[in-house]
Specification:
By secondary structure, the chain is mainly β. The chain has strands at residues 2-7, 10-13, 18-26, 28-39, 46-51, 57-59, 67-72, 77-82, 91-101, 106-110, 114-119. Strand 9 (91-101) and strand 10 (106-110) form a beta hairpin. The radius of gyration is 14 Å and the shape is elongated.
């Protein structure tokens, strides 16, 4: 019913920047919070940043001051600007959304993930 598609991952040197995008499509009535999570090899998936429909944000301590989450409600999109990247930021990054579909049921949807690799 709903698909989230991420883009923007890739390989970058330490200190560089990347911008991730995620667009939701399908039978969407409204979207509440959206967020970015990441999972490094051998580790659990962790929250990176979240943004409410009103624009309030929250970040993991490890990315505060370096990453910025934003959204475009008209486009059903969420973005993650990542600056001053470090090798420890290397992970698969997943987009997440709490979405009311047209049948008025809220479900949590996930994107397929995009790889971010930061070389030292």
């Amino acid at each position: 019913q709903v698909q989230l598609v991420e883009s923007g991952g890739g390989l970058v040197q330490a200190g560089g920047s990347l911008r991730l995008s995620c667009v939701a499509s399908g039978r969407i009535f409204s979207i509440n919070a959206m967020g970015w999570y990441r999972q490094a090899p051998g580790k659990q998936r962790e929250l990176v940043a979240v943004i409410t429909s009103g624009g309030s944000t929250n970040y993991a301590d490890s990315v505060k001051g370096r990453f910025t989450i934003s959204r475009d409600n008209a486009k059903n999109a969420v973005y993650l600007q990542m600056n001053s990247l470090k090798p420890e930021d290397t992970a698969v990054y997943y987009c997440n959304g709490n979405i009311f579909t047209t049948d008025k049921i809220m479900r949590v949807y996930w994107g397929q993930g995009t790889q971010v690799t930061v070389s030292s």
